[in-house]
Specification:
Blueprint: E1 5-9, E2 18-21, E3 35-40, E4 43-53, E5 67-68, H1 77-89, H2 94-100, H3 104-107, E6 114-120, H4 124-134, H5 139-151, H6 157-164, H7 169-176, E7 180-186, H8 206-221, E8 224-230, H9 236-249, E9 253-257, H10 264-275, E10 279-282, H11 288-300, E11 305-308, E12 320-326, H12 344-355, E13 358-363, H13 368-376, E14 380-384, E15 395-400, H14 410-422, E16 425-429, E17 438-441, E18 458-460, E19 465-467, E20 474-476, E21 488-491, H15 495-505, E22 511-514, H16 523-532, E23 538-541, E24 554-559, H17 563-566, H18 573-585, E25 596-601, H19 607-614, H20 617-631, E26 638-646, H21 649-663, E27 672-685, E28 688-697, H22 700-713, E29 720-724
Parallel strand pairs: 8-13, 8-14, 9-11, 9-12, 10-11, 12-13, 15-25, 16-23, 16-24, 22-23, 24-25
Antiparallel strand pairs: 1-2, 1-4, 3-4, 3-5, 6-7, 17-21, 18-19, 19-20, 26-28, 26-29, 27-28
């Protein structure tokens, strides 16, 4: 009998599948969706079987698969279908997509103490039917099935044996009959819970009740796409909790994605208080072992709610009924490097469609694209127009910094002093890391630059280092590299310098800085717990503290500079500025005391700032939409940003021009426009010269097919970075 041929996707920048022979001694085991070890040239790689066939068109002699790495497939056909869609939409080889769906702790799990877990296999009705037939014939097998049916999770084999009082023999017999599965995996390393919140008694508002009623109806139907547009402090989280409870009650599972790790401690505390151990954490702040443990809990059904950041959208939950994307407007939902460069919002929509699940996007400041879908009828709008916690909306003051030379304007300094005297808490937001944004030599008048990227180095005071935030290059501050002078000037303020300024101005304040430079693994939960306990007076940080945090004793929020995004040459600058200020406004006055927000800016008349202060999303949306329509930017077209990097400057220019010429004939079609080529920002990164080409298209999949053919013909596939639906055109 002819050997079966497996189609294997490998994690390489090669857009095709490879054929391998299935060893005959593997028998009839289920293979599609399983990881396998294969010889690939002179390397050994971990690939995934995505299909089987009777014969291969490859003219040479096929190699055999070397080893199967999973006791049962990691991916069902529905998962593979999602991966194929990601590969096609985001122009990424299927093997790289599949490799990204599993956390490193699972992919590289070391052999160690393995624990056997049990779970029911197959259709529930078949199990119940088998149980009725066993009865007196095999009472211990019947007892095992009854215990599993009543357990509610996948127990350890040893735990079930103790409960039933049996040997392994009846368990093995049931496994041979296909009624249960025995899975061996590492004992899960549970993440610690550093943040705690007391339980709350919540009475739903009329708007919250109406939103939940619509979601409940959609969950029962198994389909529905919603945008929950709720003003700050309107109780969106309570709607999320209620929707998750309803999904669980219907026997379905849920995925809740948040944009920042800083939000997970508070949310996980609330979800655990309501859902118990059904909620599992899933984010990069965990150790590899902890992520693998939570992944296992979700895969076997012990946990049925996945809560985490971007990668949580791929959590291996069964019977998916609900996907929630909180703060759906956030740019952090877009994966940059490595490929696939997916957007959570798009993947969530496709996964919900494939699974027959409800999609719920939530934000106080929805993305222009999502609100546009509401207008087109692709998303159903759920409105929460009134605050349900705290006083009236906080008072907002704009401070024109045109004549100010200090970081803290007099109004903000007075407001900080008043809160310290009243023992109230504050949040200060500055969306720039480091001490100074550039270091300038007074003698030779040169800015200290990264030798590999040609951009200004950022000064970090604590380490006394200059760092490149693009490639990671670092050196001691010392002297000017051009002339050797020690007469250096520090320009621009980051959070590290802001911390020093505030400590000098208010030496008695209990201040804590919270940004990616200041945090160690898992520390964000500890900081937020200390803030909740009022052990911190003033929390200073980047955008990670401007989202979603709910602390009733915070009465002042200061935006130290509203211009960090607005000054960037990017079409989303106005939208991101509006969102930054609006979200910051939402952190103040969530308790019994009134709140105040002070926004410092050099552009006080800009429409994004004015309308954010007024809380007028609709007016901002209409004005921003006019701007986008006039230039053909999203949501009126999709963008595909192509970036080519090459160490030889002239060759980089020649290659990008060749690509532009290959695509030029297609721009005669109405759906496709070509912008560029032009030098990227920064022009050099890690020693390579960078050129950019941008496509505007109304047909992503069709354009990708043309682009893939052009890249393969020019032998540039894998060398050109393709970013579909980029969040910006810089970088």
């Amino acid at each position: 009998m002819r050997q079966q041929v497996a189609q294997v996707a490998v994690p390489r920048h090669i857009d095709r599948l490879f054929d391998y022979l299935v060893p005959e001694h593997w028998g009839s085991r289920e293979l599609i969706g399983s990881r396998v070890r294969v010889r690939f040239g002179d390397d050994r790689l971990e690939g995934v079987i995505v299909g089987l066939k009777g014969r291969s068109d490859f003219p040479g002699r096929l190699r055999e698969l070397e080893k199967i790495l999973d006791e049962r497939p990691l991916w069902a056909e529905r998962d593979l279908e999602l991966a194929r869609w990601i590969a096609a939409y985001y122009l990424c080889p299927l093997g790289l997509v599949l490799a990204s769906l599993v956390p490193a702790g699972v992919r590289h799990r070391r052999a160690g103490r393995q624990v056997a877990y049990l779970r029911l296999a197959g259709d529930l009705a078949a199990v119940v039917g088998a149980l009725e037939g066993l009865g007196k014939k095999a009472p211990q097998q019947a007892a095992v099935l009854e215990a599993l049916l009543s357990w509610g999770k996948a127990p350890k084999l040893s735990e079930l044996r103790r409960r039933v009082g049996c040997s392994e023999a009846p368990i093995r017999a049931l496994a041979q009959r296909g009624l249960l599965l025995i899975e061996r995996r590492s004992a899960p390393a549970r993440p610690p819970q550093a943040y705690h919140e007391p339980g709350r008694q919540i009475s739903l508002s009329a708007e919250q009740g109406a939103a939940l009623a619509m979601l409940d109806k959609a969950l029962r139907r198994g389909k529905g796409r919603f945008l929950l547009h709720g003003v700050n402090a309107s109780g969106k989280t309570e709607v999320y909790l209620g929707a998750a409870e309803r999904a669980l009650a219907l026997g379905r599972s849920a995925i809740i994605v948040v944009p920042e790790i800083s939000l997970t401690p508070q949310l996980i505390a609330r979800f655990r208080a309501r859902l118990g151990e059904s909620a599992a954490l899933y984010h990069s702040g965990l150790t590899p072992a902890q992520r693998a443990g939570e992944w296992d809990r979700l895969r076997c059904g012990e946990a049925r709610v996945a809560l985490g950041v971007r990668a949580a959208i791929f959590a291996p939950v069964a019977h998916l009924g609900l996907i929630i994307v909180d703060e759906e407007h956030e740019a952090t939902y877009k994966q940059d490097d490595p490929a696939p460069r997916y957007h959570v919002r798009q993947v969530a929509s496709r996964r919900a469609e494939l699974a027959g699940a409800v999609l719920l996007l939530g934000s106080a400041t929805p993305s222009i694209e999502s609100y546009f879908q509401v207008r087109r009828g692709s998303l159903k709008l759920l409105r929460l127009s009134e605050r349900v916690v705290g006083q009236a909306p906080p008072r907002v003051q704009i401070v024109d910094m045109a004549t100010e030379k200090n970081l803290l304007s007099p109004p903000l300094a007075r407001a900080i002093a008043a809160r310290l005297q009243r023992q109230e808490q504050m949040i200060l937001l500055l969306n720039r890391r480091g001490f100074a944004r550039a270091v300038y030599c007074k003698r030779c008048r040169q800015t200290q630059q990264c030798p590999r990227c040609g951009v200004a180095l950022i000064y970090h005071y604590r380490e006394q280092q200059l760092r490149c935030h693009y490639c990671g290059y670092r050196r001691s501050v010392g002297h000017c590299r051009q002339c050797g002078s020690a007469e250096l000037s520090y320009l621009g303020i980051g959070t590290e310098q802001a911390e020093q300024v505030i400590r000098r101005a208010f030496p008695g304040a209990r201040l804590r800085r919270m940004d990616s430079d200041a945090l160690r693994r898992g520390e964000h939960g500890q900081i937020l717990e200390a803030f909740r306990r009022r052990q911190i007076d003033l929390l200073l940080g980047t955008q990670m503290i401007g989202l979603g945090l709910d602390f009733p004793n915070v009465t002042l929020v200061g935006v130290l500079s509203a211009d960090t995004v607005l000054d960037l040459p990017d079409f989303r600058a106005g939208e991101q500025t509006f969102q930054l200020i609006s979200q910051a406004v939402g952190r103040a006055g969530r308790g019994e005391r009134p709140g105040e927000v002070i926004v410092q800016t050099h552009h006080p008349e800009h429409y994004a700032i004015q309308q954010a202060v007024l809380g007028d999303y609709r007016s901002f949306y209409e004005e921003e939409l006019l701007f986008r329509r006039s230039l053909g930017y999203p949501p009126f077209a999709h963008l595909i940003k192509l970036t080519l990097e090459e160490r030889q400057e002239e060759r980089a220019k020649e290659q990008i021009q060749a690509l532009a010429q290959a695509l030029a004939p297609e721009t005669q079609q109405a759906y496709l426009t070509l912008l560029g080529p032009y030098p990227s920002l920064p022009y050099r990164r890690r020693g390579a010269y960078r050129w950019q080409l941008v496509l505007k298209t109304k047909d992503v999949l069709g354009t990708n097919a043309l682009l893939r053919a052009a890249l393969e013909e020019l032998k540039l596939y894998g060398q050109v970075k393709a970013d579909v639906d980029p969040q910006g055109l810089m970088g």
